[in-house]
Amino acid sequence: MGAKATGPDALGGGEQYATPRTEVHDDTLKETVLSTEVKPAGSGPPSDPEGYDRLREQVILKNGQEHLISWTLDEERRVVRKADLLFLPIFTVMFTWMAIDRTNVSGVLSSTFLKDTNISRDQANTGVSLLWLGIVLLEIPSNVVLHRIGAHYWIPFQVILWGILEVLQMFVTNAGGWYAARLFLGLAESGFIPGALYTLSRWYTKDELASRTAIFFFGASIAAAFGSLISAGALRLHGVNDRPGWHWIFIICGVSTIATGVLGLITIPKSPYHTNRLLAGLIPSHGWLSDREADVFTARLAKASEKNQDATLHIKLADIRDVFTDWRLWPHLVNLPVTSKTSWSFYAAYFVATAAPGWQSINVTWLALNAKTPQKRAISYAIYSGFLWM
Question: Which superkingdom does the taxonomy of this entry point to (predicted)?
């Protein structure tokens, strides 16, 4: 049940155990604290670890009243599977379209784009670089906004916004318009990857998160496999409705991205207690988690962590200052370009990769260990992603 208490109250006819308690107000997860329950002597965990692990208990405070939630591992696996069926497909598809929207410029430049817009190859490459500048500029502010208004609003809004900007690129007629379009596309996409990973971390325990993160990043592989095929198919529409092929690349990719964002706005819930409200709570519907399953989901997260499980934790300016002034962050950022971007310095990267193949993992682990609070970890990962895309 919890940590064994010490002191006078633990003496006599029983033993006292500290039990994590999660307060739930207004159907959201609140800070995990410790309450105590007096249990008869010998009422601690059974000697059979496997049997004890299959039945779990957690006290949560719901609507002002304490509830002791008991559940089995089968129940827990069932609610986790339901979360997987929602979060993994939608976030992976979002990542896929983000990667395609970033890289479909190769198909655009292989068409009549340069001739139609009177843009030189150098100007086109400058526009491509401005995309990454936009991503770096708002990587941290984007995640601050996410914490302010909630991932269930911000992430779908981001996807819809960059989908609209993707479509608007079809109206580019000169270098200035190309520069603006790519810069604003980068600004709209900034913060999506760390924001999505942080959102997943609020729905999964640390033991479950690694495999879900791997599935999320599989979106990049999907984009690499099908992005060029989509561009090739779009270019075959050259002349349809008097539009060049590169127009159709932006239209197809942009509209598909917008549709994915709308789907995310409809389905991504604020908390386990909000799964029965479409459009982030505006439209009542039959939820994918029952009240019982929402209780189990809430209790299992509280039991797995002593940290605040609130999905709207606030990042303060002091958190950002502490991250940037922490000397342990900067060695990581200095060696990041060498170990992540082989095109910058092929031989240096090759030497590091062969001499220490686990160096990239060491970088990420170092960053996580030295960013102890969720807020600082979110900021640090945003910085990491920004440097990675530079």
Answer: Eukaryota
